[in-house]
Amino acid sequence: MHRPVLLVIAHGSRDPRHAATVHALVRRVRSLRPGLRVETAFLEFNLPSVPGALRALDAEGVRDVVALPLLLTRAFHAKADIPAALADAPARLRIHQADVLGPSPLLLRALERRLHEAGVRPADRSSTGVVLASAGSTDPEAIAVIADIAREWRHTGWCAVRPAFASASLPRTEDAVRELRDLGCARVAVAPYVLAPGFLPDRIARGAAGADVLADVLGPAPEVARVLLERYDAARLPLRPALGA
To answer: Is residue 244 part of a domain?
Structure first.
C-alpha cells in the first residue's frame, strides 16, 4: 500500500531546546508506526527549511507528502505561513496539508499526564484550579478554541480552569493564577498548552511563580504522537492511489 511521507512542520526557535523537543516527538511518532517515513522541517531559525525539505524529497523521487503543522490552533502560521511555504514545492510533489493538532481529547490527556508528573494527584482534583496557559494569538478563532478547551476541561472535576496567554491576548498567566486564588482554590497548577520550550513557554513559567505546580510542556508525550498519526491518517485518504495502481 502506498504510504505518503509525513513531513512535520514546526515553527523553529533560536532556543536549542525547541528543536530537540520536536525531534524527540518525531522519534516517538516513528516508534509508534514503524515503516512510516517521518521527516521534519521548520518555518524559521532551524534547518531544514520547508522548501529545502521538499526539494530533498523530490530529488529522492518521493511523490506524495502529508505536510502536518506542528501547531495546536489554526492561527496565522497554519493559515498563511505554512501554505506559503508549501507553495514553493516542486511541481511533481503531491502535497496535502493536514489539520493542526488541536483541539483533541488526546491533548487533554497529555495535559493531565504532565500535571500528574508534576505532582498533582487524582485526589487533589476538586481542590485544584488549573491555568491553561497557551502562547497566545491575535487570531480570534485560536483564542476561542483555548477558551472552549478550558470550559470543557473544567467539567472533568477540577475546582476551576482558566485560560491564559503568554502574548497577544489577555489574561496573562499570573493574572489567571491570582483569579483562581481569589476563587478559593486550595491549590493552583499551571498547565502549559505548548509543544516545546522557548521564549513564550519561559514567559509562562515566570507567570507561574505564584502557583503551587508548574507542569512541563507537552513535548513528546505519547498522546501528542498519537494525535500526529491521527491527523496524518485523515490527510492521506485523498492521496491513496486507485486499486491496482
So the answer is: no
Is the distance from CB of 239 to CB of 97 less than 8 angstroms? no
For residue 185, give its domain range: 119-214
Residue 12 lies in a domain: yes
Half-sphere exposure of 163 (CA within 13 A, CB side): 21
Does residue 66 sit in the same domain as residue 134? no
Secondary structure element (H or E) that encloses residue 217, with its range: none
What is the model's pLDDT at position 78? 82
The span from the CA of 72 to the CA of 70, in Å, is 7
Distances in Å between the Cα of 214 and the Cα atoms of 19, 111, 118, 187 are 22, 11, 7, 11
In this prediction, residue 77 carries a pLDDT of 76
Q: Are residues 138 and 189 in the same domain?
A: yes
pLDDT score recorded for residue 2: 74
Helices (H), the chain: 16-32, 50-59, 76, 82-86, 105-117, 140-154, 173-183, 199-207, 222-236
Is the same domain home to 59 and 137? no
* Per-residue DSSP letter, 21: H
Ordered strands of the 187-192 beta sheet: 160-165, 128-134, 187-192, 213-214
State the CATH number of the domain containing residue 178.
3.40.50.1400
Compute the distance between CA of residue 39 and CA of residue 67 in angstroms, rounded to an integer. Answer: 10
**SS3 (DSSP) at 75:** coil
Q: Give the chain's domain count.
A: 2
Low-confidence ranges of the chain (pLDDT < 70): 1, 238-245
